[in-house]
Amino acid sequence: MEYIVAMNGGDGPNSYTRNSKLQEESFNSTKPLLIGCIRDNLDIHKSCKVFRIADLGCSVGPNTFSCVNTIVQEVQLKFNAEFPGFTSLPKFQVFFSDTFSNDFNTLFNALPADRVYMAAGVPGSFHGPLFPKGSMNFMHSSCSCHWISEVPKEVLTKDSRAWNKGRITYVRSSCEVKKAFSAQFRSDFKAFIGARSEELAPGGLMVISIPCKTDESDFIMDLFDVLGDAFADMVHEGLVEEELLDSFNIPFCIPKPSEVIKVVSSDEHFNILKVEQSFVTAKLSSAEEIMFYTSQIRAVTEGLINKHFGPNILMDDLFDRYCHKLKEFSTRFQNIEKWGTLFLAVKRVIMKDELIQTSSEA
Amino acid sequence: MEYIVAMNGGDGPNSYTRNSKLQEESFNSTKPLLIGCIRDNLDIHKSCKVFRIADLGCSVGPNTFSCVNTIVQEVQLKFNAEFPGFTSLPKFQVFFSDTFSNDFNTLFNALPADRVYMAAGVPGSFHGPLFPKGSMNFMHSSCSCHWISEVPKEVLTKDSRAWNKGRITYVRSSCEVKKAFSAQFRSDFKAFIGARSEELAPGGLMVISIPCKTDESDFIMDLFDVLGDAFADMVHEGLVEEELLDSFNIPFCIPKPSEVIKVVSSDEHFNILKVEQSFVTAKLSSAEEIMFYTSQIRAVTEGLINKHFGPNILMDDLFDRYCHKLKEFSTRFQNIEKWGTLFLAVKRVIMKDELIQTSSEA
């Protein structure tokens, strides 16, 4: 199946470039952990000539460059601290990777002119291999791993017990629907982790930030689910075909921290260095804040919706309705709700059969 | 200065994807040489894990993939022939590189599903560094190096002796104009060669195919120059501002083989393995052939024209006129003219100070 998830391209008013503040907040909440991880756990070698970094699920817009800049800067600082006076810093090569539908043209044209790294774009699904074995030194993924490779088939099958009729997420659905999404997440995340353990050089680091469920709630998921209510009204009014809505689900699953940890722990190539949850307060009390969330969710879902419902879907109408629904929804939690990001740092261990090889390549 | 040359994107009727047969013919005329060069001159090592290939000035469309497939296939064949029974072929990583204006989205979406290599896109001018030092095994450039980084300033300066008033190429211009373009080519090509000698791993190969002047003529350049006549008519009729035409030149210079060889020879990092001229017969006798050439030239120049003359330029009108002009032009050479491609294969020599390093990395 073609992997079609991509954020809104370009740099217009509905673009992801201009509407990715939530993801920025999420990254900022884990940034000190990322920096600490590089300082404390990255092994660097004086003879390292090329330091290869991948940003997986890079999308477009300022967040991408902000993540990468932080990594490059910290590696440089570490290098200077460990080898004072040594002037031959490694060259940085950064691979920006996302699905084939991602707007790489916009990404490339927005590359900072003063960057100190060489840039490359890598199209493809991160649920499979993207880079040659052992070729990467640092891999990073922020706000991406919760996108699953496809909506579980049973969720879209009329006769199935997991049929998710009339809803676009699992959040208020049956236990079977939830299980199906959860299984898909585990399978996809396992494939993600497996691919990365091949691609990371022994001793290399990977840092993942992923939205996660907190004990009390699943705010992010709820936010997406409310969009289903707006759709339902449009079906009711004959503006959207019922069958089209029934066959639409957002390929998206917010995991529990324990699910993430379990998958990573089961890969013998990885040592978990740090797991930590960070939180951002959800603000949905004023009209401006609700407008803001509406535009953020639109930038993320519009591509999917267009692909599924076709060009005649009344997109502005849908998101106007969504905005109103969010207002109702916001009264439910009165500004005290938080949404969580799970930070996970792992090191690619050096396997026994890699020992000789690594020392000769260092 | 921003480097703006890029072929027409997308895959519509005027796209480069659908209108790059001339470049295909040029590549096909040198393909046997490319294959022979890999067979006879590529040093491969059993321990090579990643074989990195760059296609420089890749543009979009089928030619790009056809070049790269040929290279990958031949390297595989060579590997199998030299190490029969050894199953661990290197992984191929192919870097498609072109200017920031290139349509990488279209390129990525057209990547062959059955490709045996990992793909990356690298935006940037090939007149500067694009890859980490010594990181590439094979570099290739077909029909690209004749694009220069900018139109020489004196050609656009009113008071200069090299002012190229009313013309868009140097081909029927003064000696000063020709000299200015030629100097720009040499300077740019020197920068290109210098960057590649840094990026190629010692022992690596580079193959360049570049349109070149034959003894008798400069057919390709003439073809572009005729477009200037169409522009001149539009100025005459008040459809295009005279000043706008005076400030427009195609950043394009077809070199003599000797100019190319001189630049390469002067770089101590390269050993010239082969230089050969191949020829394609120019066919401009029928109306269909003239239409064909018109669409080929349009796919190459439309982006430049749009950028310079703005969105109000009557593009269809311009190329209708061009088509008529080409008919007049074609009577001049009655189907006997050929256009030449210079094939050049070089090997990155191993410098004295690289000897130890290379043997430990092999």
From TrEMBL, chains A, B:
The keyword RNA-binding does not apply. One of its GO terms (biological process) is methylation. This is Uncharacterized protein. It comes from the Eukaryota. InterPro entries: MeTrfase_7 (IPR005299), MeTrfase_capping (IPR042086), SAM-dependent_MTases_sf (IPR029063). Keywords: Magnesium, Metal-binding, Methyltransferase, Transferase. One of its GO terms (molecular function) is methyltransferase activity. Belongs to the methyltransferase superfamily. Type-7 methyltransferase family. The keyword Membrane does not apply. It holds the Pfam family Methyltransf_7. It comes from Daucus carota subsp. sativus.
